[in-house]
Each structure stands twice: as C-alpha cells, then as structure tokens.
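Table 4 source record.
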Amino acid sequence: MNARRCVAALLAGVALLTSDVSAMAGPISAKGEALGRFLDSLDVEHKWPAGVHVNWETGQPDGRVVRTPGKHTHCSAFTASAAKRLGVYLLRPPEHSPVLLANAQFDWLGGAGARDRGWSEIGDAVAAQQAANDGRLVIAIYRNHHDDKPGHTAIVRPSAKSDAVILAEGPEVAQAGGTNYNATSLQRGFAGHRAAWGKKREVRFFAHEIALPAG
C-alpha cells in the first residue's frame, strides 16, 4: 500500500471512530445521576410484585383479596408512585382505579397532563433517553388497542447506551410488570405488547421537569 492509500485508510478509520463516539445520547448529567439513584432507591425488583394486591404507593402487598381477573401487574402504580415522590402529578388512585390505569394514563398524558400539569411529549426514543440523562422524569407508555385489556408503562432511566443501541432496543427503563426490572431495555420490558416496540413502535414518551439534589 502506498503512502497516499495509507493516509486515506487512516483518515477513514478516524472518521469511523469519531462517528461511533458521537452517535450517543449525551452524557449523564449530575441531575441524571441523582435520578438514577432515586430509581434505585425504589427497589422495584422487590416491590409491586405481580399477582397480588398491593398498596399502589408503597408497592407492598396489603393482604387484600384480588377480585378482578387478569395477571394483576402494577406498572402504572409504580410510575404513579415514583412521580408522586418526585412532586409530580401523574394520574393515580383515587382519581382512577389501579385497574387499566396505564391506558388511562396514556390518554391523560396527551390531554390534561400536557395541558394543565406540565407534561410534554418527546418525539423519539433517543430524545427520551437524552431527557432522562438530563435528569427529567420520562414516562414510556403504550395504550392497548382494546379498552378492556391493559397497556404498559415504565420510567426511562439514565443510561450511556449509544444511539444505535437505543434505536434497536429502546431506552433503558425501570418498571413493574410480569417481571420487575430496575434496569432493562424498553424492548425487553414491553415484550408482552408487540406493537409497543415492534414494527409499529406505538410506545410514546412524556417528560416532566423535576427537582432532585445533584449531590
């Protein structure tokens, strides 16, 4: 290989490396780090367990008998509880029953939540990950097409994953559900709802400013 070709190959390699480095949601800010610590403190993997009745706010089983059919997962209770602890209103009991709450939250976020409660929609997954990295409360939410079947919702948590990974598997999320995750991909967390992160990608993202100490 002559000198000119060597230089060209070197420049191409540098360009590729530069593009790989730049193809990432922005770094996690101090507020984002604080948000991550807050989400860790909720201990979602040991609270809001599926299959039993829980106190929606604490996530602890309350011994009450479950009288409605279904799997009895608590994704929307978890997001509502987290929002309340952060001083943000998200549709929650007693204003709405825990039953089919995720569907109702979806409708509310696009209506009264955006109009009256400071929520704003974020248009894509990379921007949603960036908003969480910046320390905003970001809700990922899917509405079931059938009003009598549950949707799903989760909280986007700060992550340094690249844009390519975000586009492939979605932002990083914390969620309650059939399986509770403190940190997993949106693709994995919403796997029970194919339209959420399949070809249609019907999941939507809503963000709200929060105040958390950065230290």
